[in-house]
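Deliverable D5.2: sample structural annotation.
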Amino acid sequence: MDFRDRHIVVTGGAGALGTAVVTALIEAGAICHVPCFDEADAKRFHLRDHKQVVLTVTGNLADVVSNICLVRSFGAAQRERERLSQEIDHEMSAQRESLRALERLRLSHALAVFTVAAAMLAWAVELWRMGRITTGDVVLTTTLGFTVLHASRDLAMALVDLVQHFAKLRDAFPELQLGWTVRASAAEMLAAYREYDLDIADFKGSRFMRIARIKEQVAAGRLSETLRWR
């Protein structure tokens, strides 16, 4: 049969029998989408690098739903229904707690914005009553304060999104760990400076600064104004 340019989902395709099915479909020209239980299951699948294979790590939720007929045929519908309900409850609890934490952060930020803005406005009005600033200064101070505070809200939300994205990466790839730090980079740079006998004078001098080095060569007459050697 000819399955060229057809996309076919093969549940259990990473298993022994599923691999044979995927192989046959690949030979027929199909593009096979294979859902895997986890990353370890995906790594064990020897056809994972084939150009006609698309792997997707979906976990046991998708595995139960996609194989529900098989579950029923073995009389395990009630057990799998309970397990699936527990998994869904766990996911819902995690999502609910995440949303609550985000709302608490937003509420705390709103209270901080209100407090700081009110304090800035009261301070500006008090200075205006004392004649130390003009009306325009009051308006400018209030506008600038609100702008900075709203920008801080965007920054806070961006940081929360960043933390959530990194948390998702850690969950999806638990073996992915940061193996390099700023401290390690600084130690490596210091070791290289000591190995080549570099000091602060060399670091700040013109020897290792391209523009300063070029100017020095031009001034010495070794380079022309068009940066050609004489």
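Annotation notes: The chain has three domains: 7-66, 92-172, 182-219. The chain has a mean pLDDT of 77.
The annotation will be released with the project's public dataset once the embargo ends.
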